[in-house]
Amino acid sequence: MKIISKPLRSEWINLLKRPEIEQLSLETEVTAIMNAVKLEGDSALRRFAEQFDGVKVESLQVSLAEFQQAEDKIELPLKIAIHQARTNIERFHQAQREETRIIETTPGVRCWSRAVGIEKVGLYIPGGSAPLFSTILMLGIPATIAGCKEIVICTPPDAKGEVNHVILYVARILGIKKVFKVGGAQAIAAMAYGTESIPKVYKLFGPGNQYVTSAKKMVNREGLAIDMPAGPSELAIWADETCNPSFVAADLLSQAEHGSDSQVVLVSTNEKLIKKILAEVAHQVEILPRADLAKSALENSVAFCMNSNDDCIDLLNEYAPEHLIIACEDSDYWSTKVINAGSVFLGNYSCESAGDYASGTNHTLPTNGFAKAYSGVSLDSFVKKITFQRISADGILNLGFVIETMAEAEGLWAHKNAVTLRLNKIKNDN
Amino acid sequence: MKIISKPLRSEWINLLKRPEIEQLSLETEVTAIMNAVKLEGDSALRRFAEQFDGVKVESLQVSLAEFQQAEDKIELPLKIAIHQARTNIERFHQAQREETRIIETTPGVRCWSRAVGIEKVGLYIPGGSAPLFSTILMLGIPATIAGCKEIVICTPPDAKGEVNHVILYVARILGIKKVFKVGGAQAIAAMAYGTESIPKVYKLFGPGNQYVTSAKKMVNREGLAIDMPAGPSELAIWADETCNPSFVAADLLSQAEHGSDSQVVLVSTNEKLIKKILAEVAHQVEILPRADLAKSALENSVAFCMNSNDDCIDLLNEYAPEHLIIACEDSDYWSTKVINAGSVFLGNYSCESAGDYASGTNHTLPTNGFAKAYSGVSLDSFVKKITFQRISADGILNLGFVIETMAEAEGLWAHKNAVTLRLNKIKNDN
Question: Counting C-beta atoms within 10 Å of the first and last residue's C-beta, which end of chain B has fewer, N or C?
Fold first, then answer.
């Protein structure tokens, strides 16, 4: 992790550039997979399971018996932990519900909006070495609160043709019954187009490898909604003398262990502190099982020594990190100055892993600078807000002139006429 | 407009298919334009203005003098109308502001979210025959309420190199000073990449022709946020005996006059009523200045005679119209059954043109069935919701076990360690 000291403001944008992700040219391969699923449905999914996952899948859908067996395998402490995390995530996302309020914008003109759950949503949950059951909590909980009627999960089977038991356990407690043993681009195609077994959905969520990401991009281009554009995970930490260097180091590493493409950024006005933290990082990394991944992520990472606190916050807003930890004395004050970030952690005890699992906030967040325009996943991601209006005869009498005048100025006469007819009717009736 | 009587449920999806929009293969052309803007900046914009708009543009940015001259040209009734529409739209969108509420999900674990305006947004406003100044109200008002710091408008110049005066007047009263005389794909490129004159923005809004739409799609693919995918405008009306057939006909026509690709759908359980309405349509269309456009839109349009009210609402939810008028006796009741629609108009006096201009709801809405997953533009479209958390020592004592257990189960040891270090510190301190 190299240290950049007092960079000129004009250099910031270049210094903050994310490492270029090698765009494998997957399009041809992914398109072939997706077309096969579109044309052949389930049989293509079974063929790809053999080809890519090395397994013959009899029934694509997870059976009741499999759910039951999965539950039996989970030990009590993990059940308790998942239950507590679920409660917190539910509390935070329940609070995002909005009451419908009718606004009378002009006497007789009443307008309101109502949030309605997207009827059919698909969640992709990666399998492999780190089965991200926490992602089911983060996506499944707001989906159920939103009232999505059909929630579909696709996740790849392991070499035995089974789905990770914690994934099944979490799906079950959330009441998600439709879990399919399908991974990769073929899973995205199945949920986007529908097959004999797998329902077509209206919006797709969830992380994935380059094939999944490429497939999500493709169906998004065709008009299907997706959660957000994807990029490698990242963390920025702003620390001052009040921080605990060993905590900061541990947090940097918790981000770095995600993968070699993860990026961590450290910002401070104190170069001595930076060096102390980096020494702690070097010390702590050695005992990690995923030390290699973490070390390679750290190679892409930078510590910035800045002139002032104002420069720190400006630099961070320019970077727009997915996760931002502010381990500074005035973290409450500085939190009000954050403009671009996915999720912000304040003080010495708010570690990123709390938000990743259990504090209640969502962990599906905008990476790669997308925080400048995108929010993380929330209840909003699973609803559409439909607007309604009811205009009374008095209402159109009050508003009619406005509509007529504007429609005429835009040259849209039928728009005007729709009002004129109504005004005439009311006048004739009286 | 053909009548389809009592269609089988299994046929609905096919019957409701939108007419295929001829996808002109614009990609090559649009890519060339966009690359030129990326490389050459303002000089490319000037060249394209000559080439496409047939005009030499000296200063790309609209000057203060031009704003003043524009204002002088607006007559008082239009000023009053715009003022009233603005007030209503502001009232409705102001009410979408959310107060920050801190949720203590576990004792010592406080989480909240804060809506922050997207710093830089770009609004594309088409010029041409119908200068859509109403779209500036619909996009500019939520942008200013959201607190977007930089609001940029691009709109094509006319043959004299001028921007429509109502467009300038509306921009000015909203406090939007950066209006540029640039249209088409080159405008989208300018706002996406930035030029010497035009700032690069983080999110793009607004309707446009096929070049604009294609350019928006392209920059969206590159990661830039856009308001929503585009498609031709549409209206569905559900009418029963309590409707006024001449109002319904006028509303159908107000949608149809938008363009020959507009689609209108009429739904009723009463075939006699349908015929009466279509006769009214045939009568009213003749006097419209845009009768040709309207007639050609009506050719693509369908009236459905259904068996029951339940079938009507199910059909409409399957169609997912951009605009839906419910001119039925129990419109309040049926409004609660709407799942897929952009904006809904209830009763005989709620004409679509009210929502297009002045009632307060937004007129930028999901077309082409996108209402199944997308909302219309609202205050949400101009903010990111950043989540925050502050965990106290007590908080991490309460939550630590949960995080440690879940991180371990996902095999992410550094995530666990970030908590363990904190728990140990607290224990050692006590």
Answer: C
Report the alpha-carbon distance of residue B386 to residue B415 in Å, rounded: 22
Q: What is the C-alpha to C-alpha distance for residues B248 and B264, in angstroms, rounded to an integer? A: 11
Choose the closest CB to A387 out of B129, B343, B383. B343
Instruction: Note whether B176 and B140 are within 8 A (CB).
Output: yes
Provide the shortest C-alpha distance from residue A52 to chain B (in Å).
23
ipTM, two decimals, is 0.96
- Using the beta-carbon criterion (under 8 Å), do B288 and A360 form an inter-chain contact? no
Count of other CB atoms within 10 angstroms of residue B81? 22
B423 touches chain A (CB under 8 A): no
pTM of the model: 0.96
Q: Which residues have a Cβ under 8 Å from the Cβ of B279 and sit 6 or more positions away?
A: none
Q: Between B358, B360, B366, which is nearest A403 by CB? A: B358
A109 touches chain B (CB under 8 A): yes
Question: A135 to chain B: nearest residue by CA?
Answer: B410
8 Å CB contact between B377 and B135? no
Spacing of C-alpha B424 from chain mean position? 52
Residues 6+ apart with CB under 8 A from B367: B230, B231, B232, B233, B234, B322, B342
Q: Which helix (H) or strand (E) holds B111?
A: strand B109-117
Amino acid code (one letter) for A83: H
CB proximity B251 to A under 8 Å: yes
Does B92 reach chain A within 8 Å, measured CB to CB? yes
Mutate to test the interface with B, among A389, A391, A416, A423 (most CBs of B within 10 A): A389
- B100-124 in b/e form (b: 16+ CB < 10 A) is eeebebbebbbbbbbbbbbbbbbbb
| Full set of structural domains in chain A with CATH | 2-19+232-360 (3.40.50.1980), 23-229 (3.40.50.1980), 392-429 (1.20.5.1300)
Per-residue confidence of chain A (430 residues) as pLDDT tens digits? 899 999 999 999 999 998 776 666 788 999 999 999 999 999 999 999 999 989 999 899 999 999 999 999 999 999 999 999 999 999 999 999 999 999 999 999 999 999 999 999 999 999 866 688 999 999 999 999 999 999 999 999 998 999 999 999 999 999 999 999 999 999 999 999 999 999 999 999 999 888 999 999 999 988 899 999 988 899 999 999 999 999 999 999 999 988 888 889 999 999 999 999 999 999 999 988 888 888 988 988 999 999 999 999 999 999 999 999 999 999 999 999 999 999 999 999 999 999 999 999 999 999 999 999 999 999 999 999 999 999 999 999 999 999 999 999 999 999 999 999 999 999 999 8
